[in-house]
Amino acid sequence: QVELQQSGPGLVKPSQALSLTCAISGDSVSSDSAAWNWIRQSPSRGLEWLGRTYYRSQWYNDYAVSVKSRITINPDTSKNQFSLQLNSVTPEDTAVYYCSRGRWWFDHWGQGTLVTVSS
Amino acid sequence: EIVMTQSPATLSVSPGERATLSCRASQSVGGNLAWYQQKPGQAPRLLIYGASTRATGIPASFSGSGSGTEFTLTISSLKSEDFAVYYCQQYSDWPTLTFGGGTKVEIK
Hints:
By secondary structure, chain A is mainly beta. Helices cover 0% and strands 53% of the residues of chain A. In chain B, the strands form 2 sheets. In chain B, strands 2, 4, 5, 6, 9, 10 and 11 form a 7-stranded mixed beta sheet that branches. Chain B has a 4-stranded antiparallel beta sheet with strand order 1-3-8-7, with no helix packed on it.
């Protein structure tokens, strides 16, 4: 079965970059039928889709307008994983971050990582 | 951006009773709607997609209906494990995918 395992630091300083990784088992990041997403959840913003990467003969990315200038999602085919980098973070970026699989709806999720932005 | 509004914010129901949750879209999303269940400390779990198709392993006690701007999730007979927060999500405005604010189903 598909499992997503997240890793990365839980504390990031303001103005620095947040980096998380999601390791995939039971599927491939290069699948031509899946998409690999990052979603976050906070009390103030609720569930917020951030972006995705997917492979359809070449790699594509889609990003939410709210973070488009700061976000990068990259696949790593050698390790069958994908990553999130969010630059110039502020305390408003404090949230539980989830990776997930899905083109339109999300059928598998990682365990979640609480990332706190604080000095 | 399509705004998803869920009501009520909290629903108090007795075990064995029926629960009806609503989700409204600020503009038509057709049938492009999913429902999720989330328990404390866990990731959301997909229940319904395509407004009415149950995801793998989801019991028949969960049903979804609606199209356009008005959607409903019905839990026919609440069990203890069904008390949770439920979210709707539209995927019509691709690639901008948005969630509702959630309905908490609590024990009455």
